[in-house]
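Lay summary

Proteins are chains of building blocks that fold into shapes. Our project writes down both the chain and a compact code for its shape. Here are two examples, one after the other.
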Amino acid sequence: MRFSRAFSLTRGPKDDWFDPDLTVDTRLFLDPFLLLKTGATWAKAHDDLVAHFAHCYHLAMTLVPLGVAVLSYERRPPAKHADTELSVQASDAIASMRALQHELDVPVGLFGFSQGAWAATEAASDGLASFLMVVGCSGVSPAEQMRFHADEMLRRHRYGPRERERAGALRLQLEQVLRGDGNRDLLQEGLSAARTEPWFPLTYLPPEAPASGVTWADMDFDPRPSLGRVGVPAIAFWGEHEDTVPREASQQIWRDADIDAQIVDLPGCGHWPLLGSGRPGSHEWGADDEPSPVYSRTLSTWVTQRFR
């Protein structure tokens, strides 16, 4: 829901109070009563929004004093029954860089977290960016990353080989259905039998099989070719206790790419660059969470040494 649409506002040339820093409307407005009415659909909206801005605020507070501007924006909404393709996300990032360069006439770089790191790396291979920063970047495909994440969650919650093998088989069946060559009825049978198990919420499997015709275009996206084309300085962070992407495999892929990249482990961190975020049950970035001092210090040092 857009703020201007919700209140029937039309921005005029004198309305400098509205959207003073951007040239487009914002999609970050949510009616609080909508959150109360819809329940589970928007249950995590507040936490997701706080996490996004807390991460971006920390980035800005770390980099702006060093003369680096930070532009944050929401990714393009997905089409019905499909995620926003990485190529589209990368094109939008490139367009954002061009807009910043036009306005500021300064070098512009890219920052990507988690899934956003795939798009940021793809965009950085275009040759327009001046640098690349990523946190929690997966060096493997989305399909491989989700297999790892689901299995790692079960392992950390002390489930044994039987549950992990069952979840892994369902994940492979889901992939086949999304590729268009799987048995949807067989998948639904397996999901129906598993969805009441206590371990099921940890697997990120859907309770229902995807509808006929639903696909995932980027499921088998290989990030290695675009990573190998990155010709600018890069820095990549992974939490020591990463549970969402395969840290060691991803770091090796970055090393094999033979690019100008610094690889950094964050002690005491999981997927988020927060102290303690590797513990089971840890949440996204909240307003009171403490960023890793290694993360903050290394970001500052890297930017200072490279660009000042």
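And here is the second example, written the same way.
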Amino acid sequence: MILSFRRWFPLFLVSGLGLFFELAVIRWMSAEVRLFSYFKNLPLLAAFLGLAIGFAVVGKGRDYRPTFAPLLGLFVALVLAVGRVASARGLAYPSGGDEFLWYTAPFSYWLSLALFLSVVLVFFLLTVFLFIPLGQATGEEMARHAPVPAYIANILASLAGVWVFSFLSYLQSPPVIWFGLGLLGFGYYLYDRRALSRQTITLFAAALLALVIFGQGAIWSPYQRLEVTDLYLARQSDGQPLKVGYTLNVQQVFYQRAVDLSPQFLAEVKSEIPEMEDMAFSYNLPYRLRPQGSQVLIVGAGMGNDAAAALRNGAAHVDAVEIDPAILALGRKLHPELPYSDSRVATIVDDARSFFIKSSEHYDVVAFGLLDSHTLLSGLSSVRLDSFVYTLESFRQVREHLKDDGVAVVTFAASAPWIEERLGRMLVQVFGADQVYVHTGAVGTTFVAGRLAPDQLTRAQLTHWQPNPTADVPLTTDDWPYLYLRLRQVPAAYGQALLLIGVVCLVLVARSFPEALRPNWHFWLLGAAFLLIEFKSVTELALLFGTTWLVNSLAISGVLMMALAANLIVLRVPRLDLRLIYAFLFASLALTFFFPLNLLAGWMPVIRAVFSMVLLSLPLFFAGMIFSESLRRAGETARPLASNLSGSVVGGMLEYGSLWWGIKSLYVIAAIVYVGALAASRAKSK
């Protein structure tokens, strides 16, 4: 038993560390260098490419494992330096008006493009180099065992890596804990393989010390980096600052405020800070449209401004839904009016769409509390945390939760007029043109949908919303939920970045790692298609159960569990007919493509969860069987896995096709790639 443990533990350890470091690097880099909050898939693809190169150089003579420590030190230094410069100057992004990102710098288009491409390329390459030692170490350990059992151990370890990191996220632990635990594990692995040096230990310690020093004051929720500071506004009489609440920054930029807008405080500062009256009017507006004693739902409740406004205006009960538990906790502790301590308020940690599905309650007011996102769901999706909240299907669910005379209120602070146009048109389609009104106030543009009397419109300063007949703005749906994209297209900056990365990496790999340019095309195509299906599964599970960190972890675990089940079957069956498995694979792709997921909305939660997990993961199960059987026939692990991971990089790039054709199109693209994989397999067997 002990000998068996000693034999398998190094493989298990280094395999788990590979996925653990993937999650840690993506999470930390996207929080410090804000650009990667919107491009989380780029560091993911860089990690895949680094692991692929690491597998490709197994047994080629050079040991890259000692380079991990200096590369990590350089990575930490650059992330901290670039992150702080970028947060002070603004985000350099050449949008050209085709996409909206928060707080972009006022640079010229060409300067923004140069800075954007430079940052993307530098960090992509650095992440590639960082993961080469991890890939080589994993490949070396897998080479000591038979292919399929080694791959099973790799999957089990990856599951462990996901859930260890998820547990640390649940605890809201800081990056020094993530990286400290990861470096402890990798340090032990190097020690066990007699490759641990004093220089490595020193560099590990220096990197962790930097994380401690530069991470002071930050709160790490399961989603993002938070910082809270006192909010002061200047008095008109003497210009002296007066504390009125707190400011919450996310990813080092402004996100929201917790402000004292109580009548008592406003009476004290009315002549000194008149803008607070305007702010109070905007927050009070939704809850003055219905009589006192109303039932209120707030999604995106944040630190509590909307809940406080609802209570000030006599709400009998408030359901305050907020996806981020850390923000909710800050509001409970810091909001000057203490709305979350009131017995009339129920706080709910959940995604808005998930709550719409679970709840059977009906409300007088459903308010979207400046619900906007500064980050993607995960590296496995181009969907932002709030993407599924602003779709036609979502607004239809809101209408179903309203009482007959209820109102839906959407306040949004985006400066892009086409986003406001899109929101208005969706509300018109759901509620009717004669029931959508608008108010532009101190906190943003407020849309109100529902039946209102003329005197209410006057008191609330509301006017009928009119669409712009010349605006070309596609509406967002659950299949195309990209609120922040102006049109159905891949923004030019995406294509420019991918082209630059592709050319530079091709030249670099050709010169330094030529082994990686000779893939097994069957495994390469399997990797590309598999990642497309994985992207699709993670995104659709987020739609069904919410864009929460837990759902994301469960989705990744579901993918790994399907791969594990496929491997166990391959291990028990002497030989599988690949043509038959391919037939099952294509049938499962067709099933998942045509199955209407909205049919699951009324099912019991447990049954809905089990059925949807099985349904959406079914293609991954058959793809896993094809991969494992092919791996067994190959008789080795290093080259097939190198090919598979490098193919995944291309699959990640193809995922951007969903920005054009919608999320379901990924099934079609994956099916085409799998046809190529089948052809490559048959060509190789001849």
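What can we say about the second shape? The longest strand covers residues 402-412.
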